[in-house]
């Protein structure tokens, strides 16, 4: 990767990925784009362009203007929002992806876009979900992610575009709070723990989902993109995870740092239904074997770091 063009650069992953890539590859070599600009470090600290990923012409012309050799496509609607606006979600998630893939094909650029544990559904084996298994998700987000994996593999086999992807679990971060996800309870709980010493979870106790701390997610993207192409058996997309927990377990870990922290439940049926359709834990062996994936943060280490950073 030398000249990196990022869409959705002001989102939960994009905003931290942009800064990390600028530190590694040089500020002027990382072009951040999003549907609108804001005063965040990602928007202000280097090249930024307003790009609507559903506008084919603007995306390709902007990527060409910077002679991008890598396209990192992060712009998308997450699961809960997509479920409320399924047609808009299809148009943005699939229209944006197609434009990003066409840009990569035209520019002969390397390509990354994330998939998700949301690409699995109720008929997928729920525990230690394999890399290659049944994928019949029952959410629009999941349909977009499965279609996106197939489309990205198609661009590799048909046009030789070096496409790579990761099936992310819920990502936890303290820089840019996520918007519209199902796993976001695991982010909100830290903010509420510090502010109020208690949290009311919209996901029910006993609901296991895979999770990962943002620093591990960013390293996974860079390690995958820098991996030796000849070693990759899979491409779109690799299972990656760091931990799997249910609300009672993250609450207990927070209580180790904030004694007396209390969790209560007011389950949101819509997001509970999405969570229930996803795996309890996925198997990341393929990522470990093919490009050396490794997560540094477990629940204990992440909780200490999240609370420390948020207290500041
Ligand atoms: C969501 N955070 O909740 C995203 C992610 C696995 C969850 O895809 O939609």
Describe the structure.
The structure is a single chain. Helices cover 45% and strands 15% of the residues. It is α/β, with parallel strands linked by helices. The strands form 4 sheets. Strands 3-2-1-4-5-7 form a 6-stranded parallel β-sheet. Strands 6-8-12 form a 3-stranded parallel β-sheet. The longest helix has 22 residues, at 86-107. It is globular and about 55 Å long. The two termini are 34 Å apart. Bound molecules: (3R)-3-hydroxy-L-norvaline. The site of (3R)-3-hydroxy-L-norvaline has 13 residues, from strand 9.
Any chance you could write out the topology, listing elements then pairs?
Blueprint: E1 4-7, H1 12-25, E2 30-34, H2 41-44, E3 48-50, H3 56-65, E4 70-73, H4 79-84, H5 86-107, E5 110-112, E6 115-116, H6 140-159, E7 163-164, E8 166-168, E9 170-172, H7 185-196, E10 198-201, E11 209-213, H8 214-226, E12 238-239, E13 243-245, H9 247-257, E14 262-265, H10 269-276, H11 285-291, H12 299-311
Parallel strand pairs: 1-2, 1-4, 2-3, 4-5, 5-7, 6-8, 8-12, 9-11, 10-14
Antiparallel strand pairs: 11-13
Helix pairs in contact: 1-8, 3-5, 5-6, 7-9, 9-12
The structure holds (3R)-3-hydroxy-L-norvaline.
(3R)-3-hydroxy-L-norvaline binds next to β9.
